[in-house]
Design brief:
- The complex is a heterodimer of chains A (111) and B (621).
- Chain A has 111 residues and is mostly helical.
- Chain A has five helices and no strands.
- In chain A, helix 2 runs antiparallel to helix 5 and helix 3 packs antiparallel against helix 4.
- The radius of gyration of chain A is 22 Å and the shape is flat.
- With 621 residues, chain B is an alpha+beta fold.
- Chain B is 29% helix and 19% strand.
- Classes of the chains: A mainly alpha (111), B alpha+beta (621).
């Protein structure tokens, strides 16, 4: 059978070339480069401490560690199990404030 | 390396390494790294570390630099830099573990450091690991920053006089400041990272404010305004003397009692309690016939604050106290500290309030009787086995802190002790390095909280070794009371003839106990990480819990061990008054400073009031 000339091009040999950077990644790079990420982190830290989130999460981590036993826990496990809880516990106003900061950074950023 | 083989080894590593409370047992890979490169290789990482005021550390990087994984250019999530070659690898389970790939491809490159958190990471074990030398590097980096900050601050403030090196002992001694900024903490390797140090601005203040109750201003209602108008009498502002200042007659060698009573009369929480009639004699449950030291105290408070300035004779109180502490009764001279302890127990036992005091042990942390609410604190004692590094912790309530005087300086014991401190991750004791002759409260506190090697005949039982081992003990203050009483042990019973130690002890007007609290001391032991002290229910971050104190009363002693005289000094309305039994005179601050302190009373600078206090019984009539 004749090979079709219109078949799609063969995939590139370097299959493990990284895919196009996602929007998230682009924004992340921009934030780091301008130093805004550090400032945002400081702000977030302050807000989360103020509203008691950090203390609550610390208590959660401790409870989890106690349950598993200190000898049986790894950093990855802890992070994996606590992260969803932590994310859910962030108060809405904190989320809103951070989002607003990021939004204004992106709109006023010249590039 | 086949995956099955690898997993088995990984599991084995976990078993070996993560023993309870033993953070210093390195994993196989860390041990190998140390063997190959030496401990110095981890210490030099100090150059790469940048620390924040709060003690948080991260790896330095250029302003615009975006750290990316060497394999996949990922810039999010946890990134680890190999400590040997600096290659960055990401760690995003389950698929992208490029830090491990790097370690597998390059033998000897198994240890990496978290870029954002400055924590060591073993790429094979896949978990954080800890190393004493690395911790020291972090602490040293922090010390550098502190030192530079305070030098700058001093330069800006135009400070003249003592340079940093001389400012050992209590803090700035000029002008009654007594404050010790971060400067005095950086001398000779002292590296306490106080989150309060150097941090200004809104974030710090708002954090401090978070836990206190919001202030609600009060405005008088119609009825109340009427009451105010009708029942108020104007204060006699011609009077210059502060309220409550009144001499106490000596009833026969009772200066020990008078001096402590004067201090208690002006202990703010206690004074407020009695003056707001919280202990009402009419309502007192104990009744007339029984002994109630609370009622007797109430009578004394009433007498002292009545406005009458003629000296008062606390005869009834003395009699009541004799009945309570019958072994100390009589007209011989007594020890003021002993009296204080006895009185605290007495009010606790025979206080006769509505609280359920009877059911709690004396000195129990949660005792709600007035004296314990004011004076009761909690001390933490950590005993670490020198063989297996297991630490056992106990908490003991206390109503005061008795401090030993520092030993004579320049002796071998002093120097070898300071070496032990350095090894145990502690700070160099100021006591060992300060000049001979001078002693200070802070030096005594340093001594109190230093890691002390218990002698060979004081071996304590270690749970892990299951045998008696030599151990290192370290005390710290877990919970500070509202009012802290320091007792300086001025007696030396080691010789044939017990003698009194007359050495002058310098004491500050303002005292920050943060470096002596368990949170700071335990943190130092763990490489200055922001840890929560294990096992505590109420977790105040260090910058929150009250640790600043101010001096309001000093009880001094002059004379010999078995015969002498007690005089107390009170600080009222920012003036110092000398209370020598019935004679009250105003004195200068320097006069007080030069006195021989025996007991020092400090009150928290800002008193937080609990939102819901125990309800007091309704007033009759």
């Amino acid at each position: 059978m004749r090979a079709s000339v219109h078949r799609p091009p063969t995939p590139d040999a370097d299959e493990d070339r990284e895919p196009e950077p996602t929007l998230q990644e682009i924004i992340n790079i921009k934030l780091i480069e301008s130093g805004e990420k550090e400032r945002l982190k400081e702000l977030l830290r302050e807000r989360l401490i103020e509203c008691g989130w950090r203390d609550d999460l610390k208590a959660q981590c401790r409870a989890f560690t106690r349950k598993k036993g200190r000898a049986n826990i790894t950093l990855d496990e802890l992070v994996r199990s606590i992260t969803p809880k932590g994310r859910a516990m962030v108060p809405d106003n904190v989320k809103a404030e951070l989002l607003q900061r990021i939004r204004s950074f992106l709109t006023t950023d010249p590039s | 390396m086949g995956s099955k083989n690898f997993e088995h080894r990984e599991h084995e590593h976990r078993e070996n390494r993560r023993d309870d409370a033993s953070r210093l047992v390195p994993c196989e890979h860390l041990a190998e790294y140390r063997a190959r490169n030496g401990s110095e290789s981890l210490r030099v990482l100090q150059r790469c570390v940048k620390t924040e005021a709060s003690g948080r550390a991260c790896i330095k990087r250029e302003a615009k630099e975006v750290p990316r994984c060497g394999s996949c250019s990922r810039a999010r999530g946890r990134l680890y830099a190999c400590v040997v070659c600096g290659t960055i690898g990401c760690w995003s389970p389950p698929d992208a573990l490029h830090a491990r790939t790097h370690a597998q491809d390059n033998p000897g490159h198994g240890i990496a450091v978290d870029i954002e958190r400055a924590e060591l990471f073993c790429c094979f074990c896949g978990d954080q690991v800890y190393d004493v030398d690395f911790d020291r590097a972090i602490i040293a980096a922090r010390a550098d920053v502190l030192r530079r900050e305070t030098e700058e601050r001093r330069r800006n403030a135009g400070d003249v006089g003592d340079n940093l090196k001389k400012n050992v002992g209590s803090g700035c001694g000029r002008d009654g400041c007594g404050d010790f900024g971060a400067g005095s903490r950086t001398v000779s390797g002292l590296v306490v990272s106080s989150p309060c140090g150097g941090e200004v601005g809104n974030s710090h203040e708002s954090r401090k404010r978070r836990r206190s109750i919001e202030y609600k201003p009060w405005v008088a209602s119609g009825q109340e305004q009427l009451g105010l108008k009708q029942s108020s009498t104007p204060l006699n502002d011609g009077k210059k003397l502060p309220a409550g200042l009144r001499g106490l007659n000596n009833l026969g060698n009772t200066c020990f009692m008078n001096s402590v009573l004067q201090a208690l009369l002006h202990t703010p929480p206690l004074r407020n309690y009695f003056l707001s009639d919280r202990h009402n004699q009419a309502m007192c449950q104990r009744g007339d016939a029984q002994l109630c030291l609370g009622c007797d105290m109430d009578i004394i408070f009433t007498a002292a604050f009545s406005g009458d300035r003629t000296p008062y004779s606390p005869a009834n109180f003395l009699y009541s106290w004799w009945r309570y502490a019958s072994n100390l009764a009589g007209y011989e001279q007594q020890d003021a500290h002993e009296f204080f302890i006895s009185l605290v127990s007495g009010i606790h036992d025979e206080g006769g309030t509505t609280s359920s005091c009877k059911t709690t042990r004396s000195g129990d942390d949660n005792c709600h009787c007035k004296v314990h609410r004011v004076f009761s604190g909690l001390l933490r004692s950590d005993v670490t086995c020198t063989v297996c590094d297991l630490t056992s912790t106990t908490y003991d309530p206390c109503v005061d802190i008795s401090l030993d005087l520092e030993p004579d300086f320049g002796t071998e014991k002093g120097f070898s002790e300071s070496i032990i401190h350095a090894e145990h991750g502690g700070r160099t004791s100021r006591a060992a390095s300060s000049a001979s002759g001078a002693s200070s409260l802070l030096g005594c506190l340093d001594r109190f909280t230093r890691p002390e090697r218990l002698g060979a005949n004081e071996k304590s039982f270690c749970e892990r070794c299951q045998t008696r081992q030599e151990s290192i003990k370290q005390m710290s203050i877990r919970k500070v009371p509202l009012v802290l009483c320091f007792h300086i042990k001025r007696f030396d019973f080691t010789r044939n003839q017990p003698k009194k130690l007359d050495r002058y002890v310098q004491f500050p007007l303002f005292l920050d106990l943060l470096p002596y609290m368990s949170s700071s001391i335990v943190r130092l032991r763990h490489g200055n990480r922001l840890l929560s002290v294990s096992g505590d229910a109420s977790n105040l971050p260090p910058s929150q819990s009250p640790s600043e104190f101010e001096l309001f009363a000093v009880v001094t002693h002059s004379g010999k061990l078995d015969s002498g005289h007690y005089v107390s000094f009170l600080r009222l309305n920012k003036c110092w008054y000398k209370c020598d039994d019935a004679w009250i005179t105003r004195v200068t601050e320097d006069y007080v400073r030069a006195s021989q302190a025996y007991m020092l009373y400090y009150v928290q600078k800002t008193l937080f009031y609990k939102a819901s206090d125990t309800a007091r019984p309704p007033m009759g009539g």
